[in-house]
Write a structure and sequence with these properties.
Number of helices: 14
Oligomer: single chain
Helix content: over 70%
Largest sheet: none
Radius of gyration: 21 Å
CATH architecture: Orthogonal Bundle
Structural class: mainly alpha
Order of helices and strands: HHHHHHHHHHHHHH
CATH topology: ABC transporter involved in vitamin B12 uptake, BtuC
Shape: globular
Distance between the termini: 32 Å
């Protein structure tokens, strides 16, 4: 009986729990290092005492709570949002290359931000509000366009992927057009935004991102089983009572919200939503009850680690985090392709 299905499932559940616990531990370490690193390195012990409100050093408290802690927490929440959106998109499209970055959603958000930067003097709203709002709206437009274009032929995964690729090239072309007509000042701002940066994070922006992610979680919890069934194929999922079309529509709404709010405040950050779900799938498996939480945790861990790297690559300077994620993500992704075929179905 010890080698039966129940024992095998117990071992699998224990492994999943161990992976999630280790990921949480890694997040704690990465978060502390993220707060500690910067133009002036702070001892990790001082950072921990300040976070726990045990520090007596007002200078350390001011640096930690005013500047670095919002950045570190934003990295965790945004990374979790990108990891979750990537896992959902790969599941509903049954495509290992699907993510908000590769299928045009992030490009749509980038175009929305660039549009406000170029047309800023003509807008009645301050740029600090208009840029993230426009990025969020155009991410939603990109998601809706992918779904509607794919729906013309029955919303099959193949059509949705092709529609996403078409939208990616469209928004990249429109973004290039804006860069071509932009003034030198606006062009510099667009390029900096497209690189991705956490340095403009604040407690208010962090609260908005966290609230959107928290609002998406109950829907994800409800759809865990239908998403797992969808991995068996559309026909089998329908046979199990899943409304595949409605599930994909809800999932695209979640992807739009998670990607839009993440990209709106930190700019375009690639590979997190692509790599994190693959890493989770290798260690956890296809069961969405473990895959989705692990994707969020690994996304947060990857972006937090990239944030630390962005502050240590050039001592005393801040390296754009979008460049770091690309430089780290490309070889890691190639390793997934060449060294671990389980990453691809």
């Amino acid at each position: 009986m010890s080698d039966g299905p129940a024992a095998a499932y117990g071992r699998l559940a224990a492994r999943r729990a161990a992976v999630l616990v280790l990921a949480l531990a890694g997040l704690s370490v990465a978060g502390l290092l993220d707060v500690a690193t910067g133009p002036a390195f702070l001892p990790v012990g001082d950072v921990a005492r300040s976070v726990l409100r045990l520090s007596q050093d007002r200078t350390v408290d001011a640096i930690v709570w005013t500047i670095r802690l919002p950045v570190a927490l934003t990295a965790l929440v945004v990374g979790a949002a990108l990891g979750l959106s990537g896992a959902i998109m790969q599941t509903i499209l049954n495509n290992p290359l699907a993510s908000s970055y590769t299928l045009g959603v992030s490009a749509g958000a980038g175009f929305g931000a660039a549009l406000v930067i170029v047309a800023g003097p003509l807008l009645p709203l301050p740029e600090s509000f208009a840029i993230p709002a426009s990025a969020f709206v155009f991410a939603a437009i990109a998601c809706a366009a992918v779904y509607l274009i794919g729906g013309l032929r029955g919303a099959t995964p193949e059509m949705l992927v092709l529609a996403g690729i078409a939208l990616l090239f469209l928004f990249q072309a429109l973004l290039s057009l804006l860069q071509y007509v932009a003034s030198p000042e606006a062009l510099q701002q667009i390029v900096f935004w497209l690189f991705g940066s956490l340095q403009k994070a604040s407690w208010g922006k962090l609260l908005i991102v966290a609230l959107v992610v928290a609002a998406c979680l109950p829907v994800l919890v409800r759809d865990v089983w239908p998403l797992t069934a969808l991995r068996l194929g559309d026909e089998r999922a329908r046979g199990l009572g899943v409304d595949v079309r409605a599930l994909r529509l809800r999932s695209f709404v979640l992807i739009s919200a998670l990607t839009g709010v993440a990209v709106a405040f930190v700019g375009t950050i690639g590979f997190i939503g692509l790599v994190a779900p693959h890493l989770a799938r290798i260690l956890i498996g296809e069961d969405q009850r473990g895959l989705l939480p692990a994707s969020g945790l690994f996304g947060a861990l990857l972006l937090s680690t990239a944030s630390v790297a962005s502050k240590t690559v050039v001592p005393g300077a801040l390296f754009p985090i979008g460049i770091v994620t690309a430089l780290v993500g490309v070889p890691f992704f190639l390793w997934l392709i060449l060294g671990n075929r389980r990453a691809f179905w």
